[in-house]
Design brief:
Mean pLDDT: 96
Largest sheet: 7 strands, mixed
Bound molecules: pyridoxal-5'-phosphate
Number of strands: 15
Distance between the termini: 26 Å
Number of helices: 14
CATH class of the largest domain: Alpha Beta
CATH architecture of the largest domain: 3-Layer(aba) Sandwich
Strand content: 5-15%
Structural class: alpha/beta
Shape: globular
Strand order of the largest sheet: 4-10-9-8-7-5-6
Amino acid sequence: MYQNNLAFAKAQDEQDQLKSYRERFYIPLDKQDNELIYMCGNSLGCQPKAVSHYIEQELNDWANLGVEGHFDAQNPWMPYHEQLAVPMAAVVGAKPSEVVIMNTLTTNLHLMMVSFYNPTPERHKIIIESDAFPSDKYAMESQIRQRGFNPDDSLILWQPREGEDLCRYEDLEAIVQEHGDSIALLLIGNTNYYSGQFYPIKKITELGHKNGSKVGFDLAHGVGNIMPELHENGPDFAVWCTYKYLNSGPGSLGGCFVHERHHTNKNIQRFTGWWGQNKDTRFNMRKGFDPIPTAEGWQLSNPPILSMAAVKASLDIFAEAGMKNIKAKSEKLTGYLEFLVNDLNNEDIAIITPNDPTQRGCQLSIQVKNADKALHTKLTEAGVISDWREPDVIRVAPAPLYNTFEDVFEMVERLKKIL
Ligand SMILES: *Cc1c(COP(=O)(O)O)cnc(C)c1O
């Protein structure tokens, strides 16, 4: 189906329904002003060209209207975040009432833990995948300590078997069986930032719920390249950032999903602020918190409009391109990368990421035996922006909205020369 030559790659690009979207992004340049092969959307996505116009609109409205911009701006700031709910929900497969853009990722993880991790001496454990992103693990450990428990007893790792790189679902089942009623929460990073493995959301959610545990996902490496179908699959919550595949700029806002079954539960624990308060009475500034009965009820503060404008610029592109189309292209593009890497026929190279497209996003983690960081430096010098993880893994993420089949072909050609 795939062919290892430039003409084939170019023909694929020609047929690509989404090919025009690359033009909507700034592709970073080398010192001679040539476009780099940018495969690092898993770390920071490229800037949509429209971002500056979206932000400029808000700067102008602020300059001209001052505080009246809350109501009179072209996109009034008071309900600004509400416009993001529909396109954001479409990307993660949720109802608009179930998603909100707010804070940053780790902050949202903490807020969700306040609501969905309520440990008791009988049920206090959290299951997390062993190679979780460090911030997630720090958040879990501090939450466990904050509630008077000890991470040594309460944090249980779902690990790959000896000599393997991927976590097996049946091992998670075994952990749930073994720890049973003592498990309060399953919190899984999906897609795994290191291996690129995508875990089955529906199966894990059902496994956790059957055990009486809550289930949450960190979709930082999945959102924008997988289809988590959050409403249908039914986890209690999910969190993500918008600066990786969602291209909203360094340190931009986070996203949060709370399943609608929790929206009107007044007994749920949460940290609160005025932006979660019923909009009819928010400005009465009176006592008695009455949460908005949607994911918005978890908001704390009035949001930073300039960052929200960047998120809006990006989500408008996702809405136009359609998540199904993006996902379909992503599978082809990553499949092509896999084909070319395997076609190197190099014994020292192995792809850690699962070869089943339903068990991965767009990233491939390529292990190069006996390599060190010098390999990554040479790749960078050759104009390929990728990501290195000690001891010997290159992470490459062809992003479906702006990477091309030619990018993928060129990247592997350059890797071959270096090897
Ligand atoms: C990128 C990433 C983070 C970073 O968290 P911030 O709060 O946005 O700095 C955390 N967790 C995971 C899984 C990530 O991929």
